[in-house]
Amino acid sequence: MDGYRIAVIGATGAAGRVLLGIIEERSFPVSSVRLCASERSWGKIITVNGGDVVVEEPTRELLRDVDFLFIAASSGVSRELSPMAVDEGALVIDKSSAFRMDPDVPLVIPEVNGDDMESHHGIIAAPNCSTTPLAMVLKPLNGANNVRRVTVATYQSVSGAGAAAMDELRTQSGQVLAGDQPEPIALPHQIAFNVVPQVESFLDNGYTTEEMKMVAETRKILHEPELAVSATCVRVPVMVSHSEAVHIEFEEAITPDEVRETLAGAPGLKVMDAPESSVYPMPVDAEGRDEVFVGRIRQDQSHPRGVVMWIVTDNLRKGAALNAVQIAEEVLSRELMPAQRG
Amino acid sequence: MDGYRIAVIGATGAAGRVLLGIIEERSFPVSSVRLCASERSWGKIITVNGGDVVVEEPTRELLRDVDFLFIAASSGVSRELSPMAVDEGALVIDKSSAFRMDPDVPLVIPEVNGDDMESHHGIIAAPNCSTTPLAMVLKPLNGANNVRRVTVATYQSVSGAGAAAMDELRTQSGQVLAGDQPEPIALPHQIAFNVVPQVESFLDNGYTTEEMKMVAETRKILHEPELAVSATCVRVPVMVSHSEAVHIEFEEAITPDEVRETLAGAPGLKVMDAPESSVYPMPVDAEGRDEVFVGRIRQDQSHPRGVVMWIVTDNLRKGAALNAVQIAEEVLSRELMPAQRG
After folding, report:
1. Range of the domain at A116
2. pTM for this structure?
């Protein structure tokens, strides 16, 4: 076999396009590519691995000829297509939130909990883009010294809300610079030269769905169902990369140097921490990079066993598309394709 | 007496200009105005209360004819001029950090600790723009239920770094939109479409001076020298208004409703908290307003006696100039002018 038949749902979106690029970059073994999106994109042509691919409607027939189905679309789309794809023998790698908390669906960051994939039933979910970097940092630390509590404030780029939100930031920025009043469409309020403390929609407890995803998904990925986590998720006028200010409380005392050492040895992480030279992670530097960058690691002045840090990741890559492709690679190396498992 | 002889140091800066506007708005009783700034601004003309005032060099002679000296300049400038002004009989209201932690200098937010002014020796300091809103929220809460610990992540506008940083954000935003590479000058890194986890300079403990100001000043203002506080201060591409994501731990359990009620009755605060309608404080709405806005008040999911909230304030007004003018008003109503005290 020369490669696998892949299909991408949401191929024209921000994460979908990055996913196609990563498949090329990493030479993922592909024998055929089908691209799907919502109706307004049908007929569009996208170049993948040097060949032109027409964007089409996702049908059961199309899913029949697919080994890997990557879903970079809404949870509604995933709920409709994923069971159908599993039924047709495909392995679904789902970037949406549709099945993340389903006990029968592994929620996977390969470097953190790749073993959870072994028990899949055709769908493997990838975490939310703000959860992934946090879980990647917490995992090695929790191995060294039990993590007791995590609080986080995010600085999330507009690309997390899709290509329309990126266009909106660009357009609104030009309008504000020209002295015009911008009109919010894709996001709930003006985002240019503003910050909006709302990512997704509100629940009865006063948190947003995004904030509660960070809690529930982190617990599931780390196998720590009781871990105390609280998040404030905020949209900032940045195109790509999510940043997070994180307070972590440990069971035992720990020094910033121990944290730095533990994180420096962990897969997928890069410690970037030389504040005396103004070196720390930032969104513009993380964009296009695969690593989760960690800096500003210091003792929590307000807690004897606490550490504070600053985490930045390209939300479209490790936060979304890269993690999805890495899951597919891991499926292959672990021989977890539905056909292989007979 | 028709009014007071005032002088403003740093009159051409972002906070200085807002201060002059607030003096007009609030009809602060002024008999004469002298304006000073750094050398490159000498000779500039600024209109105050309908009259043109020439920007000049701050000299001892000038200070001799001043009742209120407002300093909206660097701590270096304040260290040079304040003792001289006190010597000449002026009352100094200092927005710089020069004397804030001096035990002989009251550090004042009139709504919070106006009584501290009674013991002044000629200088009254105003807090850092990120400290003021936090202390204003903590004060009434700490009265209701002891505050045990505070952690905060800030989203600070460029105006906190002065007019040059505001110009830089405007210029860089245009450059990025045009596809050009921006050059940082006023700030340590590109700020357009980026966030920078550095406000001011780094100390040996890994915190910035800005972050440690939030700790030390909050303790002094609240008369809580041991209060556990930890901050991460981040610059965001916003022109005016600082935002803060705040976790507060209390001695006794407290509900979000109790917090809302306590804050709603506190001076200078405005609760703006209807998340179901996407109503919460934001920088663009707070700009030009006097209040400290508080929203997203909710139980801390990670702590049994914790509450999380989101605070936004115009950093040039209540964070700086308005608080300075309010101090002057309070000096008058308490009859604390050096001459009055004999």
Report:
1. 4-127+320-333
2. 0.97
